[in-house]
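User: Just a sanity check before I run the rest of the batch. Below are the structure tokens for the first item. I only need the designed sequence back.
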């Protein structure tokens, strides 16, 4: 249950009420909000005097649900908005891993050429083998920040584990929580304290309920800027890397108030399928797309098979406007 307390309730009173009702306390501007388990269906009597408004829910999708907040939350990404009533489909592109200044600068220039505002690049890579390239770490974050300043871009990079969460928070504009880190509550809780957008990727073995509850960890920490990213789940199929759960996206769009981004690159795992899949994602009316691109994918140090070369990316980009227009969206 979510309870909005009356505006005259002090911090001391709010803390006492939170304790008595076993609720998480969130400060929203000058007011206080309590969130209890969704098992609470009736307003607890200790809150009857202090409550101004309250909502009961069928499960723990609460702060992120449309029954609490009917419209999609608007999140500012520099000069552009994702979600809200923008009807934007925000493109985010760049390499899987930041590999060198030249490589990243070429990605930044591709963004500028096409008017794309968000540059992606991993610095701490969550590889499935300890012997694979693990990312440039802090040097990668510094290169991303350099490109942000040089080309006026927003940068997004992922947190792999709690050891470098502060470095990522400090350097990036959008914090990406990778699919394998989605269950890391240390990362989720820390991101709840930050006032920057957080993009959470769905774990490939996670249900939609587990995914939205990961978002609730960040939201209940008081950070309202959460973006959900579907990037494929594991099924019995092995000819594609993962299976992009478009039904899940329809569910998220209908039930969640958070912007939804799709990542066709990691789902497909092969560059040949990415353009068609991207157009399908645009047609679904999503708020954003995360697509890997690389100046020379064959030489990429991670996810080489799925990254688009720049010519393929350019021709994909050109094909998106009419698809977006057909669902009332604008590619930005
Ligand atoms: C990535 O974005 O490069 C990445 C590793 O993604 P995921 O966490 O979805 O596997
Ligand atoms: Mn990747």
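Assistant: Here's the designed sequence for the first item:
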């Amino acid at each position: 249950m979510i309870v909005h307390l009356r505006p005259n309730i002090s911090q001391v009173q709010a803390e006492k009420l939170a304790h008595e009702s076993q609720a998480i306390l969130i400060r929203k501007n000058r007011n206080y909000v309590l969130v209890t388990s969704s098992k609470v269906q009736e307003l607890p009597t200790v809150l009857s005097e202090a409550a101004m408004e309250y909502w009961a829910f069928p499960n723990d999708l609460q702060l992120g649900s449309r029954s609490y907040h009917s419209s999609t939350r608007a999140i500012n990404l520099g000069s552009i908005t994702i979600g809200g009533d923008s009807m934007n489909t925000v493109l985010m592109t760049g390499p899987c891993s930041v590999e060198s200044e030249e490589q990243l600068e070429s990605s930044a220039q591709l963004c500028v050429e096409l008017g794309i505002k968000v540059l992606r690049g991993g610095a701490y890579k969550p590889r499935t083998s300890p012997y694979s390239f693990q990312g440039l770490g802090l040097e990668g974050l510094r290169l991303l920040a350099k490109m942000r300043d040089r080309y006026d871009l927003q940068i997004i990079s992922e947190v792999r584990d709690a050891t470098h969460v502060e470095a990522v928070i400090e350097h990036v504009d959008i914090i990406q929580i990778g699919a394998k880190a989605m269950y890391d509550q240390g990362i989720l809780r820390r991101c709840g304290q930050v006032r920057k957008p957080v993009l959470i990727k769905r774990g490939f073995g996670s249900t939609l309920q587990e995914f939205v509850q990961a978002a609730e960890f960040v939201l209940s920490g008081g950070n309202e800027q959460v973006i959900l990213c579907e990037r494929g789940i594991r099924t019995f199929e092995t000819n594609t890397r993962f299976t992009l759960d478009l039904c899940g996206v329809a569910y998220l769009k209908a039930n969640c108030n958070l912007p939804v981004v799709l990542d066709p690159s990691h789902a497909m795992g092969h560059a040949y399928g990415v353009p068609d899949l991207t157009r399908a994602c645009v047609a679904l009316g999503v708020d954003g797309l995360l697509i890997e691109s690389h100046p020379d994918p064959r030489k990429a140090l991670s996810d080489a098979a799925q990254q688009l070369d720049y010519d393929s990316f350019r021709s994909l980009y050109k094909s998106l406007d009419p698809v977006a227009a057909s669902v009332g969206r604008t590619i930005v």
